Every structure is written in structure tokens, then in C-alpha cells.
UniProtKB/TrEMBL annotation, chain A:
Domain named FAD-binding PCMH-type: residues: 1-186
InterPro entries named among the record's database cross-references: Diverse_Substr_Oxidored, FAD-bd_PCMH, FAD-bd_PCMH-like_sf, FAD-bd_PCMH_sub2, Mopterin_DH_FAD-bd
Annotated PANTHER family: XANTHINE DEHYDROGENASE FAD-BINDING SUBUNIT XDHB-RELATED (PTHR42659:SF9), XANTHINE DEHYDROGENASE SUBUNIT C-RELATED (PTHR42659)
Pfam families (UniProt xref): FAD_binding_5
PROSITE patterns: FAD_PCMH
Gene3D superfamilies: 3.30.465.10
Full protein name: FAD-binding molybdopterin dehydrogenase
Domain of life: Bacteria
UniProtKB/TrEMBL annotation, chain B:
Keyword Nucleus attributed: no
Name of the protein in question: Aldehyde oxidase
Top-level division of the source organism's lineage: Bacteria
InterPro entries (UniProt xref): 2Fe-2S-bd, 2Fe-2S-bd_dom_sf, 2Fe-2S_ferredoxin-like_sf, 2Fe-2S_ferredoxin-type, 2Fe2S_fd_BS, Ald_Oxase/Xan_DH_a/b, Ald_Oxase/Xan_DH_a/b_sf, Ald_Oxase/xanthine_DH-like
SMART domains hit by this protein: Ald_Xan_dh_C (SM01008)
Keywords, ordered alphabetically: Iron, Metal-binding, Molybdenum, Oxidoreductase
SUPFAM superfamilies on file: 2Fe-2S ferredoxin-like, CO dehydrogenase ISP C-domain like, CO dehydrogenase molybdoprotein N-domain-like, Molybdenum cofactor-binding domain
Organism: Cryobacterium breve
The 2Fe-2S ferredoxin-type domain, residue ranges: 1-74
């Protein structure tokens, strides 16, 4: 929709241009979130796309010292990378977790046409419980890089970025710069489940299991909880232990996309499916291609 | 900045916060629609350098240097792209408002992507069709009417005993009744060239924005308007001080006394959150909105009530305690009671006393939003009186998105004290209605603004306005008690209804009475009792919605009947056969109905047989694997009167044009009052006229829904488009045919009138032929014109039976529809493909109601589902293909034996689905929607 109170668009070319940001001036990436709601508190936008950040950067051990994007080998996703670009990323050798990238894109409520403009960073910054890029980044134990308003950089686990229903760690003037996925996570086996109140509706819960090469297991619960919740185990837990830990999660919530008690219960069902799938995968060598639970 | 739209260079200066959709429309590319403005519905889809995007969330400035392609860039009438032609051929639209975006999106899909079609089309919402026809258009296929493209299993190849059969595309006389003529507007709709309400440029247009109440119930003590009025570009600030003091109802009916007069254009008391408080008229919408934010309202909060039970209790806050019961026509404003019905036929106590089996239960339905893709909107302006007009002052013109332009005309004249000739109301093609546009929601305030400023003014609802301002389906509590003897024969039927009509009583009496009517009279029971009430609360108003109350009450009654069948131990189809009225039975609610209501034809027996046979035949869809899936079957029946009671009037004329018009050489002009909003009446009118005049529909031009075009039409509601307006068109066409024969006989005095037969180009009698062109020329200015009218004094009944086979996941509460069947008695089907589409669309809306949709309020009057992404209307992925079967009957009232079939397909669906779920899981759902979390909770009561 037209944002009729917005009077200026600043095309950012350098980090210094982000100084325009404020309570009435917001960063603009794809626009699919900003332009989807009235923003009468805004008078200006700062366009981040003109910063020209490379969308997807692959770093291997051979790349030598790493600069701003991360400190470990892996995949760096610019905040301005579109969901379409991410969904099209080709598999690199050893990326057992590669199907998860596309699976998480399909958990976006928006259509594939929204993928063409919506960004990975924008999805994290909207900080909706059902934000699938939050699910993805948290599940892969990605690290986010934040450009603080004062010029400093800060890195933190992506799972800690979203703090509640539409809240996150960013202060006024801060910008999410990138998301770095470590190579070790990309090498892990993953299992993905989503359920909504309708076949392809906005996610009620998204659960992602990750079985690392060292046999450690992490289950990341999103969409049904106000913020990502991770359950970690040294090895695949038993069914009872996993079920108990899922029930113990304390931040389920109710909205038009599902009641809290239902979200908790179906998370138990899907969590067990994930556990069973990865237990089988430990024996066979077959990650699930289509993790969508219709 | 520069860009290209459909290859044409464009220079534009977008506002910094402008979206691409509005920039494109500013260039008069009206083919790009606004359905939601939030990136959810897809009606605004365009290609930017070949990439499909939702233009409503695409920043306009980013289009600099880009090639933008709209649906018109794909092809235009006469030169359609293949995908556009396939939407024409498959009848892949009804109202057509979503179609431009749908086709743009479809144009980007490759053959290999079609397996993923449900996901790829989830961002394109259609509220009319139920998607089967859209999917056929995209795939270039035609799904047979039995829904079966299943090849596995011998059963799947066994066709229905009786039904639609292959769709008849052409016949001996293409386009006459009984053939599947495509909508006359098809080529324009699929290329975005058919104008809707706001698809017009009006020089000097001002925009109106409304300030909505933040209070559920409050008296407005003061409104400070000076800052708003002082804002440059503001032309008027309208408050209750400017409002006419005449009470009215937003609801419109043939008899204006049907609805309580409880509403003012602008009131000094607000009764629900979201109600209009003030309106600003300004040069731009941006200025009008900014001025609204500068208004300072001083409210005196009043006690409010949000629960209909609480509203009836002594001492409850009174929503319209200030109203006079007689003057406003309210049952009892001192009890928040808008309307009530208490009546008994036979002796209910005796009926229950003699029963062997008694079942009883309570059911609750939810608020449902119409979600027509075109939001409510009106443009108004003044036209100076011309020399040949009978007026000496300016004339007010309202171009509006309405199902009832003539009723709007009457009431606006009344409100603003205008002589009838001082007002013209008309509609362009309307982008969906479903009853939601049987209201005055925008016309009144636009009229006020135009009369105040003298300038053209536009008011357009946002999608959130639709959810927070426009009336929803009445939520109802339905209590049913049934008694039956040991064979299952009903001895007693007792119905209780409590409807929440919200803050205003528009449609409250009508919905309550109609809901309790055919739902009850369908059954032959010696003892009946109905106690129904419709009450005010401080919630969003309720209003008219497809089925008009029947869907809610039928949910309760048909669920109770299903329970009775279980108790008695007989098949639910047989229970209906045993107890439904037959063609010789009286129709009884609390007294014998009629005599206006008759069985013009009777096809319920056929519908029951067709649905039961289809369900027994199955469709080859396997049950999902796993013991946690439980399978069940269920059915339900519905009856509906073919038109509203107490008169529904239509006038029509058919003129032999003095010269063939337009590129198609249209020879005749039909003038009719009813509106086209996806109901397909225009198509049927063309078929009726073509049949009567023995011509082809492309020779017929139709002018409609314009108070200047024809004398009168009650409007497009109550399923009246074919059986009332259609009958008037048919009468007018027959009248003209007689006139043409007489004219021919005058030319050839030796040949008797009766021996002339009409042909597309003229009249023939033996070897003698006279052309229509000659007759038109002879007639000259005294054009040959036939007229017709219909008054709806007699009404028939139509039937629908729905059946489902479902699987329910006991772990998650998911309901998966394995088979969906609807059998309908529409009399003689005028246009099989189109009638099938009406049924599929009604079923789709009802599945939305049954499984997904709910306008949620927070208990204090605030709608929390105020955007489309929080209010889930069915997507392609959500719906099965429904098998559609038609009974073969010939109605004695309808044109060529037709009956109405537009509201009624909705009505049996929710109970049929609930009954199937009950069959699957052993627990009866009593609350809509049967969302996954509710079904899960039924199955796991201890864990919730």
C-alpha cells in the first residue's frame, strides 16, 4: 500500500548513510513487510539494497582470513538476499542440510512472488513467530552480524535475535547485516516439519531437527512459540525424553493461526516424527526431500 | 523517473512511499487491481522485467528503468494470449476481479511446475470459483463433472446415472438456454479491460477518508476539527453535525420497513469499535488521512455489552436504548432485542411425549467475512441539469459497488430529500458481493461529501475496513430438539436461535426469519416450535451473507438429524427420505406457508439418490496411511425458496437497434436493472434473449444496473438474477418478437403475423424474408421495443444435498476431504458450466466457513483478524474437486423451467462435513470453524 507519510527515500551507499535511521526513518529491504501495513509513524526510508551487499557468499577453509562476513567456513547470507535467491542456491559438496534451505522458504506465508522481493534479513527483523528465516537461521545455529548505530559490530546466535512476538535485539538505528551459517551445520542431517491450520497456511509450528556429524542433536521449535526454542542433546534422545522436553517449553502462544495447547501437542507429534526420521537416517542415508506435512 | 508499461514508455514521479500498484493505476492501467493492498491476494500481480511480483508491496521508485507487464500486456480482446483464452474457455472466473493477477501469475508457470501448483498459486485468492475452473484453465484441461480424473479402479470409470454429463459447449443454436455460453465480458475480463467501480478517471476527484471509533460504545462530546480543516488540500470535515438527522438502515430490501431504522450517516453515539466518527474530504487520500489523524475526539465512554446472552439480561447496557421501538421498528430496545419469533405448530410437548427417540443439542456458528475481492467503493459527482432533463438543478451521480443500485437510489433520495430524477445510481461490473453489497456502506457518506463540496468524491474501503467496518455473517447459537418414533419418523422439531446482530440491526429480522424458515419447513413434522431472537451487542454489525441465515440454522438442524439417524439406527439419507416434505405436502414453519410458495418442481428425491450413489461409488482417493487417520462419511440437505418473499420486482426491455452496434454488430439491446457481480446473470440474460429472438448472444448488447437504463429492479440478492430479472428479460424478448412479427406483417399485409419466424438477420415466412435492418429503418425513431416485468409473487423451492467422505488425523485434528459431492435441483439448467461454477463456489465458501474462517474479536469489540493474512479464505490447496450432479426437473415458474442456484449450494456443506467428522471420530463437532485445533481439542479434552 502507499505509505503516505513517507517523504524521503535515502539510497544508502555507505554505512555512514545509515545515520539517517531513527524512530521515524526505517530501513527498507524488499518492502514486502513495510508496504503491507500502514506505517503512519514513518517519514522516511533508507534503502539498503543500494549498499550492494553480495547476496550469498561461500567461505571455505581455503579462502584464508575472513573479513566482515564471518570467522568460520560456511555460508554468509546478506540481510538483503532475497528468499528467491536463497531458494535457488545450488548444493555445494558436503551440504547434507541443503534441502532445508528450500523447505524453510516454502514455510513463508507469502507466495513465490513475495520470495522475489522479500529478504532473509527482513524476515528476521519482522520477528514474527512464524518467520521461516528465523526458523532456518536458528536451526542451523547461524550467527547474525549486527551493525550497531554507534558503528560497532556485534555477533550473536541467530536463535537469540528474535526475543518475542515481533520484537528483537535491534535498537533504533541498528541494522542486521548478515547471517552466517557454519559449514558444520550445513554438513548435518536435518529433518523439517511444518503444520498450519490449513494445508499451506501461515505456520502454526515449524520444527527442525539437526543431527550433527558428531552425533549431537538439536531440535529448534518456532512459529508456535513467541521466540525460537532449542532443545539440545549430546545424541539423539529417546522418544519419552524429547516429548517431555517439548511439553516443558513455556512460551507457546495463541493467535489466529493456532491455539497454544494445539501447538504444543502437534509439536510433540512432529518432534517425534523428526526424531524417528533422523534415527532412521543415521542408519540409512536418506534425508527426507519433502518435509512439508500437508 | 522513466519506466515502460506494456512496452510503452512512461514518465512518472512517484511519491517516496508510493507502491507500484497505485503508480500503475495512476497511468490509467486499471487492469491492475487492489484486492488487499498487503501482498496477500495477488490481484495486483504484474511482471517487473519478467519477474512476477505483487505490485502493492513493491516500492514504486524501484521500477525505474524497468519493464512492467500487466495482464493487458499479455493480450487484448481479439488477440488474447493462450493462457487468457484458456480462462475464457474454462469459465475460469466469476466476478473476474482476481483474474488479471491470476493470469499474470499463471503466465510465468512452466509445464514442469504444475505439480507444485497449489503452492505456486497460494498467493492468488479467488472468492468466487472454488478454483476448479481456474486450475482447468491453467492446465488446459476440463475436469469432468463427476470430478473424476482418477484412472485407478473400475469404480472410478462408472459414471453417474444422471447428471450434467459432458459440458455442452455448442449446440444446434450456440448460446441458447441449456448451453455453456461463456460470459459476454470474458475477453475483457481476462485482459483487464472490463471496468469495475473505480476503474475510471474523474477529473478533479477528491478523496474521502473516515476516522474510525476507538471506543466500543461512547457518546461523542466534541470533535475538534480546526487543525484538520486547516490542513492545505482539505475541502471538508464532516461530523455528526453535518449528518442528515434521518434514521435509516444500511440494509436494503424491497420493503424498506423490513429493517430497523437505527443508523445515521454520522452519529453522535458510536456503538462499535471501527464505526465512522468523522470523514475528511481532501485533494488526495494522503491529505485526507493526515487530516483524520489531526481530529481530536472527546468521548464519554458508555457501558458496553459483547455477549448476546448478556445483552438480553435485565440491566444490560442498552445499545439503542435511545430508540423508539415503533419508529425504528425494534422488538424491544429496552432489552437489546431487534426481532424475535415465537411460534408453534401442532403441540410440541405432545410431539416430544410421544417420541421414542429424542436428540437435543446446541450449536454455535462464527462471524464470517464476505471477502469479495473488490472492496466497497463509491465515486460520486454532480452533473448540471441539461436542457432536456426535467430538473433545474444539479443531478447527483453515484457510481458504486452495489448489488442493489435501485434500492440505494430510493434510500439516498430519502436521506437527502432528493427528487428521484435528481439522482442516478449505477454500477459497473461488481467485483463480488455475496450479500455484502446489499448494504449502503459508502454511498451515503459520498453523497453527503459531494453535496457539501460540489466536487467529485471517491471513497474506497481498505481490506481492513472490510474486516472492521462492513457487516459479517451473523454468529448464531442454534438449539435443536428432535423427537421421532421407533422408525425414525419425526414427531417433534424444536428450534431455538440466538443471533448476534452486532451494533446495528441491518438484516437482523430478515436473517433470523429466513434462517428459521426453509430449514424447518423442509421437514414434515406434525409438531414444531421455533423461538428465535436477534439481539444488539457492541460488536461489529452482522448482515446479509449467501444463504441469509439458512447456513447457520441448517448446521444445527442437519447435525441433529444426523444424530437422530444414529440413535434410530437408520441411514441418514433414508432418514431424510422418510421425513422430508414431498411435492404434495404443505410447507410449515410455525404455520402453513404460502400460498405464494409452491413446489414449482421437486427434485429432492433425485438429489438424495444422486449424492448417495456418488458416495457409494467412491472416487478412488485412498485413505491416508496410518492408524491415526479415521475415515467417515456424512451428508446434509438444504431447501431454499427461489426468491425472497413479499415481492421482488424487475423490469426489462429489449430494443431492436436502429443500426447494428459496435464491432460485433449487436442487433438488440437488453436493458435490465440487476447487477452483474460474478453471478453470471448477464450470460443467462443473453441466452434467454437469444433463445426468444432466435439469434446468437453476440448480437445482443446488455445495459444493466443503472437507474437511468430501466425503470426498476429490486436488485441482485435472494438468488433473483435468473428467476426474476431473467424472467423479465425473457418476457421483454418475447414481447419484441411479437412486435417484430407484427411489423413484418405490416410490411406484407398478405402474410399473417403468426406465420413469421425469427432468424438472426430477419424474419421469414416461406420464401419471403425481411431483414431486421429493414424493420429498424422503417421504424425509425420509434424504435421497436419489447418490455417485460416480473413481480416474484409466486416462488418455488430448490434443493441441495451434499455428501462428504473425510479422513481425520486424530493426532493433529486435520480434516482431509477425500470426496465431496453435491447434487442440486436447479430445475432446467440454463448454463451448465456456469451453474456448476456457482455450486463449486458456494461449496468453496462453505468449506471456508466449515474449516478455516473466523472473524475473531477480543471480547471487547476489537477485531483481531483485520488483515487477509490473519483471516484465511480458501486457497487452491484447501479445496477438493466437488462432484456436481443435477436433478432433472422442470420448474413451472422459472424461465424455461429454471430455478435459482447461487446461495443454496452453501447451505448443506458445513453440517455434511461435521456429520462426516462425527462419523470418523465418534465425537460430534458443534462449533464452527472445525479448525484443526478445535478438532484436536475434541479428541484430547484432558490435554487442553
Amino acid at each position: 500500500m502507499d505509505l503516505n507519510t513517507v517523504l524521503t527515500i535515502t539510497s544508502a551507499r555507505h554505512r555512514d548513510d545509515l545515520a539517517h535511521l531513527g524512530t521515524q526513518v526505517a530501513p527498507l529491504a524488499g518492502g514486502s513487510d513495510l508496504f503491507a501495513d500502514p506505517q503512519t509513524h514513518l517519514t522516511g526510508l533508507v534503502d539498503l539494497q543500494t549498499l550492494g551487499w553480495p547476496a550469498l557468499t561461500l567461505m571455505t577453509d581455503a579462502d584464508g582470513p575472513v573479513t566482515e562476513s564471518g570467522t568460520t567456513p560456511g555460508l554468509t547470507i546478506a540481510a538483503t538476499c532475497t528468499i528467491a535467491e536463497l531458494s535457488r542456491l545450488e548444493c555445494a559438496p558436503g551440504w547434507t542440510a541443503h534441502p532445508l534451505l528450500h523447505q524453510c522458504c516454502t514455510a513463508l506465508y507469502g507466495s513465490f512472488k513475495i520470495w522475489n522481493v522479500a529478504t532473509v534479513g527482513g524476515n528476521l527483523c519482522a520477528s514474527l513467530p512464524a518467520g521461516p528465516m528465523t526458523s532456518l537461521a536458528a536451526a542451523l545455529d547461524a550467527e547474525v552480524l549486527i551493525w550497531r548505530r554507534d558503528g560497532s559490530d556485534e555477533r550473536m546466535p541467530a536463535a537469540a535475535f528474535v526475543t518475542g512476538d515481533t520484537t528483537n535485539v535491534l535498537g533504533t538505528g541498528d541494522v542486521l547485516r548478515s547471517i552466517h551459517v557454519p559449514a558444520s551445520s550445513l554438513a548435518a542431517r536435518t529433518a523439517y516439519r511444518k503444520i498450519a491450520l490449513s494445508p499451506l497456511g501461515r505456520s502454526g509450528v515449524v520444527l527442525i531437527g539437526r543431527l550433527d556429524l558428531d552425533s549431537s542433536f538439536v531440535l529448534t521449535v518456532t512459529a508456535g512459540t513467541v521466540r525460537p526454542v532449542q532443545l539440545r542433546y549430546d545424541s539423539l534422545p529417546g522418544a519419552a525424553a524429547l516429548a517431555r522436553d517439548i511439553v516443558a517449553i513455556d512460551c507457546w502462544f495463541t493467535d489466529a493461526h493456532g491455539a497454544a495447547d494445539w501447538r504444543r501437542a502437534v509439536s510433540g507429534v512432529l518432534g517425534e516424527e523428526i526424531r524417528a526420521e533422523l534415527a532412521t537416517a543415521e542408519l540409512e542415508d536418506a534425508p527426507l526431500e519433502d518435509g512439508v506435512r500437508p | 523517473m522513466r519506466l515502460q508499461i506494456n512496452g510503452e514508455p512512461v514518465d512518472a514521479s512517484p511519491a517516496p512511499g508510493q507502491c507500484l500498484r497505485s503508480l500503475i493505476r495512476d497511468q490509467e492501467h486499471f487492469e491492475v487491481k487492489k484486492g488487499c493492498d498487503t501482498g496477500d491476494c495477488g490481484a495486483c500481480s504484474v511482471l517487473v522485467d519478467g519477474t512476477p511480483v505483487h505490485s502493492c508491496i513493491y516500492p514504486a521508485f524501484r521500477a525505474e528503468g524497468k519493464q512492467v507487464t500487466t495482464v493487458a500486456g499479455l493480450g487484448l480482446p481479439g488477440d488474447l494470449a493462450k493462457i487468457q483464452q484458456r480462462f475464457v474457455d474454462a469459465a475460469g472466473f466469476q466476478c473476474g476481479f482476481c483474474t488479471a493477477g491470476m493470469i499474470v501469475t499463471a503466465s510465468t508457470l512452466t509445464e514442469s511446475e504444475l505439480d507444485d501448483l497449489p503452492r505456486l498459486l497460494k498467493g492468488n485468492l479467488c472468492r468466487c470459483t472454488g478454483y476448479r475452473a481456474i486450475e482447468d484453465a491453467i492446465r488446459g484441461t476440463h475436469t469432468p463433472v463427476n470430478g473424476s480424473d482418477v484412472t485407478a479402479g473400475a469404480d472410478a470409470t462408472a459414471g453417474p446415472e444422471r447428471g450434467l454429463g459432458p459440458v455442452i459447449k455448442t449446440g444446434p443454436r450456440p448460446g441458447t438456454v441449456g448451453t455453456s455460453l461463456a460470459a459476454p465480458a470474458s475477453e475483457r475480463v481476462v485482459s483487464g479491460q472490463e471496468p469495475y467501480t473505480l476503474d475510471v478517471t474523474v477529473p478533479g476527484l477528491l478523496h474521502l477518508s473516515v476516522l474510525q471509533s476507538t471506543q466500543a460504545h461512547a457518546r461523542i462530546l466534541s470533535i475538534r476539527t480546526d487543525a484538520a480543516a486547516a490542513l492545505p488540500g482539505v475541502h471538508a470535515v464532516l461530523t455528526h453535525a453535518d449528518s442528515p438527522a434521518t434514521l435509516f438502515s444500511t440494509a436494503r430490501h424491497e420493503d424498506r420497513l423490513d429493517d430497523p431504522d437505527d443508523t445515521l450517516v454520522l452519529d453522535s453515539v458510536v456503538r462499535f469499535r471501527g464505526q465512522r466518527v468523522a470523514a475528511v474530504v481532501a485533494d488526495t487520500l494522503a491529505i485526507a488521512e493526515a487530516a483524520c489523524r489531526l481530529l481530536e475526539i472527546d468521548y464519554e465512554p458508555l457501558p458496553a455489552v459483547f455477549d448476546p446472552h448478556a445483552a438480553l439480561r435485565p440491566g444490560a447496557p442498552l445499545v439503542h436504548g435511545d430508540k423508539d421501538a415503533a419508529e425504528s421498528r425494534l422488538a424491544d430496545p429496552a432489552r437489546n432485542l431487534v426481532a424475535e419469533l415465537h411460534g408453534e405448530y401442532g403441540d410440541i410437548a405432545a410431539g416430544l411425549a410421544e417420541a421414542t427417540h429424542i436428540v437435543s443439542g446446541s450449536w454455535q456458528t462464527q462471524r464470517v467475512a464476505h471477502t469479495h475481492l473488490e472492496t466497497h467503493a463509491t465515486i460520486g459527482w454532480l452533473e448540471p441539469a441539461t436542457a432536456d432533463a426535467s430538473t433545474d438543478g444539479d443531478r447527483l451521480i453515484l457510481r458504486t459497488s452495489s448489488q442493489v443500485p435501485f434500492l440505494v437510489h430510493r434510500e439516498i433520495c430519502r436521506l437527502f430529500d432528493l427528487a428521484p430524477e435528481r439522482l442516478r445510481v449505477f454500477t459497473a461490473r461488481v467485483g463480488g458481493g455475496f450479500g455484502g453489497k446489499q448494504e449502503i456502506l459508502t454511498e451515503d457518506v459520498v453523497a453527503l461529501a459531494v453535496l457539501k463540496t460540489g466536487r467529485p468524491v471517491q471513497y474506497e474501503f481498505s481490506r481492513s475496513d472490510e474486516f472492521t467496518l462492513s457487516p459479517a455473517r451473523h454468529p448464531m447459537q442454534i438449539q435443536v430438539t428432535l423427537g421421532a418414533d421407533d422408525t425414525g419418523r419425526l414427531t417433534a422439531l424444536k428450534l431455538g436461535v440466538l443471533a448476534d446482530t452486532g451494533a446495528y440491526g441491518n438484516h437482523a429480522p430478515g436473517v433470523m426469519f429466513h434462517g428459521s424458515s426453509e430449514s424447518v419447513s423442509l421437514y414434515r413434522v406434525p409438531n414444531k416450535r421455533v423461538d428465535a431472537q436477534s439481539v444488539y451487542t457492541n460488536n461489529l454489525p452482522s448482515g446479509a451473507f449467501r444463504g441469509y441465515g439458512l447456513g447457520q440454522v441448517i448446521f444445527g438442524i442437519e447435525s441433529a438429524l444426523d444424530e437422530l439417524a444414529r440413535t434410530v439406527g437408520i441411514n441418514p439419507f433414508d432418514l431424510r427420505r422418510l421425513n422430508s416434505v414431498g411435492p404434495n405436502d404443505p410447507l410449515v414453519v410455525t404455520h402453513v406457508e404460502g400460498p405464494d410458495l409452491i413446489f414449482g418442481s421437486y427434485g429432492l428425491d433425485q438429489c438424495l439418490d444422486l449424492a448417495q450413489a456418488a458416495l457409494a461409488r467412491g472416487n478412488g482417493t485412498p485413505t491416508p496411511p496410518g492408524e491415526h487417520w479415521k475415515v467417515g462419511e456424512g451428508m446434509a440437505t438444504a431447501m431454499i425458496a427461489t426468491t425472497p418473499p413479499r415481492g421482488h420486482y424487475a423490469q426489462a426491455s429489449v430494443t431492436l437497434n436502429t443500426a447494428a452496434l459496435g464491432p460485433l454488430g449487436e442487433r438488440y439491446t437488453v436493458r435490465v436493472g440487476t447487477a452483474e457481480f460474478g453471478n453470471g446473470t448477464t450470460t443467462v440474460h443473453a441466452q434467454l434473449a437469444a433463445t426468444a429472438l432466435n439469434t446468437t448472444p453476440d448480437r445482443i448488447r446488455i445495459l444493466q444496473s443503472d437507474t437511468d437504463a430501466i425503470g426498476y429492479d429490486t436488485g441482485a440478492f435472494g438468488s433473483a438474477g435468473v428467476v426474476i430479472a431473467g424472467k423479465a428479460v425473457l418476457a421483454a424478448a418475447n414481447d419484441l418478437a411479437d412486435i417484430l412479427r407484427q411489423a413484418a406483417a405490416r410490411e406484407h399485409g398478405e402474410i399473417p403475423t403468426a406465420s413469421w419466424t425469427l432468424e438472426p438477420d430477419g424474419l421469414r415466412s416461406g420464401e419471403t424474408f425481411i431483414t431486421l435492418a429493414d424493420l429498424a429503418e422503417r421504424a425509425g425513431a420509434a424504435a421497436l421495443r419489447g418490455v417485460g416485468a416480473e413481480d416474484g409473487a409466486r416462488r418455488s423451492v430448490a434443493f441441495n444435498v451434499h455428501a462428504f467422505r473425510v479422513a481425520v488425523d486424530t493426532q493433529t485434528g486435520e480434516v482431509r476431504i477425500l470426496q465431496s459431492v453435491q447434487a442440486a435441483d436447479a430445475g432446467v439448467v440454463m448454463n451448465p458450466e456456469q451453474c456448476r461454477g456457482q455450486i463449486e463456489g458456494g461449496v468453496a465458501q462453505a468449506i471456508g466457513t466449515a474449516l478455516y474462517e473466523e472473524v475473531v474479536l477480543d471480547g471487547a469489540g476489537t477485531v483481531t483478524t483485520s488483515v487477509l493474512r490473519n483471516y484465511h479464505i480458501p486457497q487452491l490447496a484447501d479445496l477438493p474437486v466437488t462432484e456436481v450432479y443435477f436433478a432433472e426437473t422442470h420448474d413451472v415458474l422459472g424461465p424455461f423451467g429454471a430455478k435459482s442456484m447461487s446461495e443454496s449450494p452453501y447451505n448443506p456443506v458445513a453440517p455434511a462435513l461435521a456429520n462426516a467428522v462425527r462419523d470418523a471420530i465418534g465425537i460430534r463437532p458443534t462449533e464452527l470453524p472445525m479448525s484443526r485445533d478445535r478438532i484436536w481439542r475434541l479428541l484430547h479434552p484432558a490435554r487442553s
